[in-house]
Write a structure and sequence with these properties.
The complex is a heterodimer of chains A (89) and B (891). Chain A is an alpha+beta fold and 89 residues long. Chain A is built from two helices and six strands. In chain A, the strands form two sheets. A four-stranded antiparallel sheet of chain A has the order 3-4-5-6. Chain A is globular, with a radius of gyration of 14 Å. In chain B, strands 8, 9, 10, 11, 12, 13 and 25 form a seven-stranded mixed sheet that branches. Chain B has a six-stranded mixed sheet with strand order 38-39-40-37-31-41, sandwiched between helices. The chains are: A alpha+beta (89), B alpha+beta (891).
Chain lengths: 89, 891
C-alpha cells in the first residue's frame, strides 16, 4: 500500500505520514439497542469502492481530516477539514 | 591464464592488483574486476553446485541474473560473483557443496536421483513413517539450499536507510534507451531520477562496442541534472511507488512519469547438458571480453537464433578464440547436447529436421536463444503483455497512464528476423534444464502436466520453476514453451505467471530494518545517570527503573520523603468556553462541577465501555483544564481528544505540553515540610488539601502543584517548564537532604501504587476491561443527563454484572507469582490471571492484583495461583493494602 494524501493544512505527503481513523460512521444519537450498539462498535461497511474516512496527520500538524478514497485503487478523491467535509455530498 | 590485450572499453585497471581469497586460497585480481572475472581468469570454471542435483555450474549470464555464481562474501551468502566488485581482502566462499566445490558428496543425487526426485518428491517419498519427518526435513534442508545464514552475528554490520524521493520522471534502466529518455526529460526541465542495476550506466552497450557512446550519454545526462543511481536495482512497483535498493539505502521513489527501460534478457536454450560449465550466453562472453579482457575459452561453438550468434562469433575471433562452428537456427541447425564431466568438452549439433548430427570438440558453447523483454516491473506497474508469435516472446501490449516503455523492453531495435527455438532439443540425451535455479528439467514439467498441474500458475507452484534467484529471467519463457508443448495450447493461452516483487535480490535487512523512533528522555535524565539509576525502556521513554535498591526507595517514601521524575506523563491543556462540556462528554464522570483549583481522577472509556486510559484532571479556571494521561497513552489520548473535537466542532483548543513541561512527584511524611521550604505557599492541610491544584513558584520556577497520591503518601506533583528540570530536581533534593529524601525510580513506584491498588491501565486492565470489572463503579456517573463516550455500553454493563473482577490479593512473604500466572478454581481449571505482583517490605507480604470470578471478589476469599509448577494460595482483598481509608493521603 502506498499512495499520497493531501493534508488540508500541510499539503501532499506520503500516506505513511498519517494515521488511519477508519470509515466515517454515524454515532447513534439515542440510546441504541444492544445489537445497534454492537454494530456501531464492531462492524464496518468495508466497501469495495469510494468511502469517506478519517485521517490524522500524525507526523505533521496532528489535525484530523476527512478523505474520500476508492478502496479498490487507493485513488483519493478529495480531502477536507471536518467542517468543510460536512458540506460535501 | 593471462588477460587479453587492452580492450577499448575495459573497466579494469591493470596497474592495481586487488588480493582476495576464494575458499581460503589467495587470489589476485585487478581493480575494476568482479569476483567472477578475477576467478575466471585464474581458470576457475565451476562457481557453484546446483540446488537439487549438486551439478557443477559455471558462469552463464555474467549480468547478475542467473543463480550460477552465487557465493558467500565475508560470511554473507547470496552474493552474485559476476556483478560484485572486487574489494581488497574480501573473503569469498562457495555455497551448497561439501566437502568442497570440486568434490561434492551430494552430487550423487545427480547420478542416481533423477527418477526418484521428480517435482514434489519430498511430499511423496518422505512422508512415512510420519514421526521421521523431522529427520527427513533436516536431511533435505541440508541437501538443498543456497548457502547457510550465520547463526550468530556479533555486531551490526550495516544499517539500512529509507529515502523518499519525489521526482517528475523516474527512468528504470540505464542502457542507451534509458539514458536518452532521461536526458530528454532533464533537458525539458524535468526533475529526473535514473535507477540502474549496473555498476556504471550503459547496460549492454558497454560490452558491444558502443561504450564510448554510452559513457558520453551518461555524462551528458548527469550534466543535465539527472540523478543517476548505479548498482541500484529496482525491487518492485507498489501503487506508483518504486522501491530501489542501493548499497544500504532503500529509495522509495515516486514520480509522475515512470519510464521503463529495463531492456531484454537473453534467453538460454533447453537441450541436454545445457547447464554444464562452459555453456555461456553470448552477452556473458561479450562482457568478459570487453569489460574484463578475459578470454572465455579457446575453442568455441556458437548456437543462436538471431544475428547475435554471428556478432559474438566476430567478437570471439577478435579475442583470438577459435570459433569452430556456428549453429544458426534460422539455417536449420541447433544444439542437441553439451558433453563433458567438469565442463564442456564437446557439443552435438543437429539439424532441426533430424536429418544430420555433428559432434564437435570445444571448451566453450555460446548460446543465444533470443531475447525476452524484461516486462516484469512494467507488469507490476499495470502494463499488460501479449505473446508475439513472430519474435517468440511476450511483449508489452498495453500501458497504463503515466507509464512509458523505451528501448528493448518496448521491442525497439529488434528488427533482424529471429527463429523461435523449440521448447527442448536432444531431450533423450540427458537432463535438459528449463529452470536452473531449482533444477527443474523439461521432463519434470512433462510429469507435472501428467499429474494435472496443467496451468502455468499451478506448475510454477508445484515445480517451483521461476521461483528461484533468477525470478523467471532465465526460465519463464522456456517453461511457457514447454507447457504449451505438453498441453497442446498456444503460448498466448498458456500465458505467463503474475509478476510479483521482488524483481531483484534484496537483503532481508533492507525490508526488516527497524523504523526509527527516537528515544525520549526527560529533562532530568542526566541527573538520573549521575545518581546511578538503572535506566530501562518504558514505551518510547528511557526511564530510571531504580537507583539500586527499590525496596529501600519505597520505604523512604513511607518513612521520610521520596522524589520521582514523572515527566513522562502525558500533559494536555484543554481550554475554551466549551472545555468543561467537552470533558463531560469524554469521561464517564463529571468535570463541569469541578471547582477551579480542584483535581479529579478520570478514566477514559471507549464507546464499547472499555478502559482506554486514566489520569488526573485539574481545573485551572472556568475555561481551562490541565489533563494528565498515562506515559504510554499520551499520544493516543491527544489523538482521541482531537478526533472527537473534530467531529463535534466545539469551542475548545488542545495544547499538548507533554514535552514542554517536566514533572516530579515529591511524596512522603516529610514532603510538606520540604514543599514549605521551596515555595511561599501555605502547605498546611487546611490551606492546601488533598486534590487541590495550585500555581506557585517552586525554587523560583513557576509551577503547577497537584496534591495527589498515586504512591499513597502525602504528595505534590510539580509540573514546571522542562528547561528548569535539573534546577528544580536539585533544589528539592537539597531542601530534603536533612529530612532523608531519596530519589525513587519506576520499580519502587510500582510497589507503592500496588499497595494502594491504584491500577496501571494496560497492566491491570486489557481491552476487555470496564470500570465496573476494574472495581471502579463509582467513577461511572450514569445519572449524567448528557451523553458521554461509552455511556450506552456502560449502561448495559451496569445491568449485566461483570463475570470477573479485579481484586487485590496478599500472601505470606515468599515466592512472588509471575505476572500473567493463572488463577485456578477448586477443580484446578484456570479462571483468571495475576496482573501485578510484588514483594512489599513495608507490609512484609507479597501483594498483587488479579482478575478472578466475581463470586471470589470478596474480602477473605481464598484463591489458588498456578505459576509454572508452583501452587500458591492467596487471600483476596478489595480495599487497598496500605491506608485503606485514605487517611494518610488526606492528612
Amino acid at each position: 500500500m502506498s499512495y499520497l494524501l493531501t493534508c488540508p493544512n500541510c499539503g501532499t505527503r506520503e500516506v505513511t505520514d498519517f494515521a488511519y481513523g477508519g470509515e466515517v460512521s454515524r454515532r447513534p444519537r439515542e440510546r441504541p439497542s444492544r445489537r445497534e450498539l454492537g454494530a456501531y462498535n464492531y462492524f464496518r461497511r468495508n466497501v469495495a469502492g469510494v468511502q469517506r474516512e478519517w485521517w490524522y496527520h500524525r507526523s505533521g500538524c496532528r489535525a484530523w481530516f476527512v478523505a474520500e478514497r476508492d478502496t479498490r485503487d487507493n485513488r483519493v478523491l478529495w480531502t477536507a477539514l471536518p467542517d468543510e467535509a460536512k458540506a460535501m455530498q | 591464464m593471462s588477460r587479453l590485450p587492452k580492450q577499448p572499453g575495459e573497466r579494469i585497471n591493470r596497474a592495481r592488483t586487488v588480493r582476495f581469497t576464494f575458499d581460503g586460497k589467495p587470489v589476485d585480481g585487478l581493480a575494476g574486476d568482479t569476483i567472477a572475472s578475477a576467478l575466471y581468469v585464474e581458470g576457475q570454471r565451476t562457481f557453484s553446485r546446483s540446488f537439487k542435483y549438486h551439478r557443477r555450474r559455471g558462469l552463464l549470464c555474467c549480468a547478475g541474473q542467473c543463480p550460477n555464481c552465487l557465493v558467500a562474501v565475508d560470511g554473507a551468502p547470496g552474493v552474485r560473483a559476476c556483478t560484485e566488485p572486487l574489494r581488497e581482502g574480501m573473503r569469498v566462499e562457495h555455497l551448497n557443496a561439501s566437502p568442497s566445490l570440486e568434490r561434492d558428496l551430494m552430487a550423487v543425487t545427480d547420478a542416481v536421483g533423477g527418477p526418484f526426485t521428480p517435482p514434489g518428491f519430498y511430499y511423496k517419498t518422505f512422508i512415512r513413517p510420519r514421526r521421521l519427518w523431522p529427520l527427513y526435513e533436516k536431511v533435505l534442508r541440508n541437501a538443498a539450499g543456497l548457502g547457510r545464514l550465520r547463526e550468530k552475528q556479533d555486531e551490526r554490520e550495516w544499517r539500512s536507510e529509507y529515502r523518499r524521493r519525489h521526482a517528475d520522471v523516474l527512468v528504470i534502466g540505464g542502457g542507451l534507451a534509458g539514458l536518452r529518455a532521461a536526458l530528454a526529460a532533464a533537458e525539458a526541465g524535468e526533475d529526473v531520477v535514473l535507477a540502474d542495476e549496473g555498476a556504471e550506466p550503459g547496460g549492454r552497450a558497454l560490452a558491444d562496442g558502443r561504450h564510448d557512446e554510452a559513457r558520453a550519454l551518461a555524462a551528458r545526462a548527469a550534466g543535465a541534472g539527472v540523478e543517476i543511481l548505479s548498482s541500484a536495482p529496482a525491487l518492485g512497483c507498489f501503487d506508483g511507488l518504486v522501491a530501489v535498493w542501493q548499497g544500504t539505502t532503500l529509495h522509495q521513489i515516486r514520480a509522475r512519469r515512470l519510464i521503463f527501460a529495463t531492456g531484454a534478457i537473453e534467453q538460454p536454450l533447453v537441450f541436454a547438458g545445457n547447464d554444464l560449465p562452459g555453456v555461456m550466453l553470448s552477452g556473458a562472453v561479450r562482457r568478459l571480453i570487453s569489460l574484463y579482457a578475459v578470454a572465455p575459452g579457446t575453442r568455441a561453438v556458437v548456437a543462436a537464433t538471431s544475428d547475435r550468434g554471428l556478432e559474438v562469433a566476430e567478437a570471439l575471433r577478435a579475442a583470438r578464440v577459435e570459433v569452430v562452428a556456428v549453429a544458426d537456427l534460422r539455417a536449420g541447425w541447433t544444439v542437441l547436447e553439451a558433453q563433458g564431466r567438469k565442463q564442456v568438452r564437446a557439443v552435438v549439433l543437429g539439424a532441426i529436421d533430424g536429418s544430420a548430427e555433428r559432434r564437435i570438440e570445444c571448451d566453450l558453447l555460446v548460446v543465444s536463444g533470443g531475447f525476452a523483454p524484461a516486462t516484469s516491473l512494467v507488469a507490476q506497474a499495470g502494463g499488460r503483455t501479449a505473446y508475439d508469435a513472430r519474435r517468440g516472446h511476450f511483449a508489452l501490449a498495453d500501458l497504463p497512464d503515466g507509464v512509458e516503455a523505451v528501448g528493448a523492453v518496448a521491442g525497439e531495435g529488434a528488427t533482424a528476423p529471429e527463429a523461435v527455438p523449440p521448447a527442448v532439443s536432444g531431450a533423450q540425451r540427458g537432463k535438459c534444464f528449463a529452470c536452473i535455479c531449482e533444477d527443474v528439467t523439461a521432463k519434470d514439467i512433462h510429469l507435472s502436466v501428467d499429474e494435472g498441474y496443467d496451468s502455468i500458475e499451478l506448475s510454477k507452484r508445484y515445480t517451483t520453476t521461476t521461483m528461484g534467484p533468477c525470478q523467471g529471467r532465465m526460465c519463464q519463457l522456456p517453461a511457457v514453451r514447454l507447457m504449451a508443448q505438453e498441453t497442446g495450447q498456444d503460448l498466448q493461452s498458456v500465458g505467463t505467471t503474475t509478476a510479483r516483487p521482488p524483481w531483484s535480490t534484496v537483503p532481508l535487512g533492507a525490508l526488516a530494518g527497524p523504523t526509527y523512533e527516537p528515544a525520549k528522555r526527560s529533562a532530568i535524565h542526566a541527573r538520573h545517570r549521575e545518581l546511578g539509576a538503572r535506566v530501562q525502556w518504558a514505551g518510547d521513554w528511557r526511564r530510571a527503573y531504580d537507583y539500586g535498591d527499590p525496596q529501600a526507595e519505597a520505604l523512604a517514601v513511607h518513612e521520610s520523603a521520596g522524589l520521582i521524575d514523572v515527566s513522562t506523563l502525558g500533559k494536555l491543556i484543554v481550554r475554551g468556553p466549551d472545555a468543561a462540556e467537552f470533558l463531560d462528554r469524554l469521561y464517564p464522570n463529571r468535570f463541569s462541577n469541578l471547582k477551579p483549583g480542584r483535581i479529579r481522577y478520570g478514566v477514559l472509556t471507549s464507546d464499547a465501555g472499555r478502559i482506554m486510559d486514566d489520569g488526573t484532571i485539574c481545573r485551572l479556571d472556568d475555561e481551562s483544564f490541565y489533563v494528565t494521561t498515562t506515559s504510554s497513552g499520551a499520544g493516543a489520548v491527544e489523538q482521541w481528544f482531537a478526533w472527537w473535537l473534530a467531529d463535534w466542532g466545539m469551542r475548545v483548543t488542545l495544547t499538548d505540553v507533554t514535552q514542554g513541561l517536566a514533572a516530579v512527584n515529591l511524596a512522603g511524611p516529610r514532603a510538606r515540610e520540604i514543599m514549605g521550604r521551596l515555595s511561599e505557599l501555605d502547605c498546611s492541610n487546611e490551606a492546601f488539601a488533598y486534590l487541590d491544584g495550585k500555581r506557585a513558584a517552586v525554587a523560583g520556577v513557576p509551577s503547577l502543584i497537584l496534591r495527589i497520591g498515586f504512591v499513597g503518601e502525602v504528595g505534590y506533583e510539580i509540573h514546571f517548564p522542562a528547561a528548569y528540570g535539573h534546577h528544580v530536581w536539585d533544589a528539592i533534593l537539597e531542601a530534603g537532604a536533612e529530612h532523608g529524601i531519596r530519589p525513587f525510580g519506576l520499580e519502587p513506584q510500582r510497589i507503592l501504587r500496588l499497595q494502594k491498588m491504584h491500577i496501571l491501565v494496560g497492566q491491570d486492565t486489557d481491552s476487555e476491561s470496564t470500570p465496573f470489572g476494574a472495581a471502579m463503579p463509582w467513577i461511572v456517573k450514569l445519572d449524567k443527563d448528557e451523553d458521554f463516550i461509552g455511556k450506552w455500553a456502560l449502561e448495559h454493563a451496569a445491568e449485566h454484572p461483570s463475570e470477573t473482577a479485579l481484586v487485590g490479593f496478599a500472601m505470606p512473604d515468599g515466592d512472588v507469582p509471575t505476572e500473567g500466572a493463572a488463577v485456578l478454581d477448586e477443580r484446578g481449571e484456570p479462571v483468571g490471571q495475576v496482573t501485578s505482583a510484588r514483594h512489599s517490605r513495608q507490609l512484609g507480604q507479597v501483594i498483587g492484583m488479579a482478575w478472578v470470578p466475581s463470586p471470589l471478589a470478596a474480602d477473605g476469599a481464598t484463591i489458588t495461583i498456578s505459576d509454572e509448577r508452583r501452587r500458591l494460595s492467596a487471600s483476596v482483598l478489595t480495599k487497598p493494602f496500605y491506608d485503606p481509608e485514605g487517611e494518610v493521603l488526606r492528612s
